[in-house]
Amino acid sequence: MKDSTSEKILQQVMDLFRGPLTPHEALVISLQLLCWAKLSKDEQMPEGLKIQAKSFADPHWVRDVWEELGRRPGIIGAAYTGGKFPTRLEPSRLGAAIELCMHLAETGVLDSFDSSDSFPQILGRDAMEFCLPGELVEVMIALGGVKPETSVYVPWDNSAQLATRVVKLRASAYIETMQDSMLPALVSMFAPEGITIFHCDPIREPSAVEGGKLLKFDACVAFPPLGLRYTADVISRDWYNRFRDRSGSGAVLAVRHIVAQTNGRAVIAVPYSLLFSPGGELALREDLVKLGVIEAVISMPSGLLANPTISFALLVLNTKEPRTSIRFVNAESDRFREPIPRARARARLVDIDEIVARVSGEITDDLVAEVTNGEVVKNGYILQVNRYVLPEWQRKIQSLLEKDHTRLLEEIVTIIRPMPPTASSETINALEVMTSDLPEMGYIPMPSKEVQIDKNNAIRRKLFLRPYDVLLVFKGSIGKVGIIPETVPEPGEGGWIAGQSSVVLRVNNSKEVDPKALVVYLRSELGQKLLESISVQGATIPMIQLRELQKLPVIVPPMQEAKRIGGILDEQAKIQSEIYELRSHQAELAKTVWTLE
């Protein structure tokens, strides 16, 4: 049965409960009624518990049946326990729903009913806490390489979407869900046999344990909750030696848990930050790369989830067959993303087969890069896809850089972090250069924001800005660049300091590097593209990590050529000054007629 048909069936039953029930309540009771009708028709119900056609059904009678079903063992019991039957329902509504479900069962329509992907369409955003887009589930299952007769671990499968597809491939599925919901069991009732369900936290209390050890599954497909955090006790109470560091990141702990519980391939959705962040995320990446268990990293399109601003990637691991290289795939490309009409910033995944073909190696193009583990180590264990899958403009940049003499930024400047303004016994007034003070051309004008700072601390840390210091915005409006004029005040009262979103680039030797030429370089199309390439993709606030900035390649021309380039900055500043004067003159002319003074 097509998903659209199953969706229509479920929607038709739910429509009978609109008004008295919430959408989620209507969803659960509709699935329970459909399941009840199917089990009765298939002779899987005792005679006294079979569904009965009634124009007016007593809600208390149905509740009593539900309680009896809830006491039955296995998935049937799980599908009818844990919730309260809404006895406030009108007997006529309930009777009509029962008759509809019986008709659907008797005509065989429910034989191929599958509700697993219907929830997002029926409930909208409210469904996303326990349900994933069907296209995303399809690509994860395809990447998992599930085979018949294999055991597949599907933790956090809150609506049995993954498990349903697994058993359709004649494999077995083991669900662990943190949500106290009947939905996994209800959805499983319409799927082939082979689904096991446990309600627990897979990280705190894994259920797949035998003889004091974690069971090993042949494969795993999982979408752990994004943004989940844990306290330190989850590590100290771990009996299975899964966690080697004290990270509280749910994503880090989930990946380590899955690696410990899988003997084969695992497909795991992770927040994009896990691919580049320091701390526990870095320690995890080091372990995965050193073990050679990473097969692929796929950056996914934006807008697939309920919160369209959340970016995530898919990690494909293989704990059974170590590899010496990693395949990076850019699925963020617009070719894999189709906007959903009337759904702001939301999109659906398309061309799933092409994504899988790029991961498997059947397709190799500009959206794919095969990178050795050694190269990843040289890149500081960064797993960002855009670090390795280079678009055309980045390949042009590489070609340009290869033709000129380049040095790393950290070799030619001292990078100074800003200091938050603080008061003390030696407090003085200073002017803070904000991001808005940085002009597109020329020199930075007089800052307008006055702050109080600790004088001695500022002097000791060399925070007062000097002539020809270069300011670079690394957070927010990343890549914006400015240069301090020669007329900047001396350090002390009235001196200038950098704002919190900028770093100071102070040239180490002006006889080797002209700071004016450096500013022209960073403001150029080439410089801006380089800064864009090291920015963190998928972060809530755009940013450049300082360790990445230190390694930025800078073209350093001979000093004579550098002086000529620096002259461009002075010429831009002169033109900018003339523009300001002309604008001022424009304003004065406007004031000469029809004023109210």
Please give the structural blueprint:
Layout: H1 3-15, H2 23-41, H3 59-70, H4 74-80, H5 91-106, H6 119-123, H7 134-144, E1 151-155, H8 161-168, E2 172-177, H9 183-188, E3 195-199, E4 209-210, E5 213-214, E6 217-222, H10 233-236, H11 250-261, E7 262-271, H12 280-291, E8 294-299, E9 312-318, E10 325-330, E11 337-339, E12 347-349, H13 352-360, E13 368-372, H14 373-378, H15 392-403, E14 406-408, H16 409-412, E15 413-416, E16 427-433, E17 449-454, H17 455-460, E18 470-473, E19 481-483, E20 496-498, E21 502-507, H18 515-523, H19 525-533, H20 546-550, E22 553-555, H21 559-590
Parallel strand pairs: 1-2, 1-6, 2-3, 6-7, 8-10, 16-20
Antiparallel strand pairs: 4-5, 7-9, 8-9, 10-13, 11-12, 14-22, 15-21, 16-17, 18-19, 18-21
Helix pairs in contact: 1-2, 2-5, 3-4, 7-8, 7-13, 18-21
CATH top level of the largest domain is Alpha Beta
Q: Main beta sheet, described?
A: 9 strands, mixed
Identify the quaternary structure here.
Answer: single chain
Shape: elongated
**Helix segment tally:** 21
What is the CATH fold-level name of the largest domain? Rossmann fold
CATH architecture of the largest domain: 3-Layer(aba) Sandwich
Gyration radius, to the nearest Å? Answer: 31 Å
Low-confidence stretches: none
